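Bit of a strange request maybe. I'm writing a small parser for structure token strings and I need a real example to test against, not something I typed by hand. Could someone generate the tokens for this chain?
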Amino acid sequence: EKAGFWALLGATLAMVGAISARVVLSGRGPVSNFYEAMLWLIGIAMIVVIVVDRTYKPPYFAAMAVPFLLILLGVTYLFPADWKEIHPLVPALRSYWLKIHVTVIVSSYGAFAVSFVTSLLYLFFRYTKVKPGADGLEAAEIKRKKLLELFDEVTYRTILLGVPLLGIGTILGGIWANEAWGTYWSWDPKETWALITFLIYIAYLHTRLMRGVTGDRAIWFSLIGFAAVIFTFFGVNYLPGLHSYGFSNTPAK
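Reply from user aminoacidic:
Good idea to test on real output. This should exercise your parser:
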């Protein structure tokens, strides 16, 4: 377990170094295109994983989170070479808002990625048949119940981290949009889906805090939210709109 933690910490420091080196080489912010945004998302997720692991010490969490992060890294590695190259930004993107708005938005996605992992762990233990241990079936059921409560709580905490970041990032994007396009909101597909994603997670928090909804229903809410994150972060980029861009030299918001 200690070896795994130090390996994850080392990988996180390596990711920080890689992002920092790219910032120095490009002379601009760390999330200027989709490739860089993916690296930032993974780096933030790594940090959140370390914090969760040290704070809550959830069993099996690191064993699930690390492979998930490796899959994300593998997907990033398979990006076309042009996506990874450093290109000059178009004039409209040479703004300090690029560094602020996109960094905050993608940081929220990193937190939501961790909530996705804990949601999957919840479902795994929820629907896996309990096998009686040395202490009997009842003790095994109690252990499972505690695990479900723990993963439900950690899912809530990571979403609670991501929602303010997503909200602040969306507001900052509106300010930047007003400067660039003369309007705070244009119902562009990217803006619309960012709002949908935000509202899904707000609904999750509302039902949990105001109506006491936890467990299965809350976890499925979390998974729906992360599906919206994936579509907002990646899928919407293929739709026409003000945020349409080539993956190589424009930002992923």
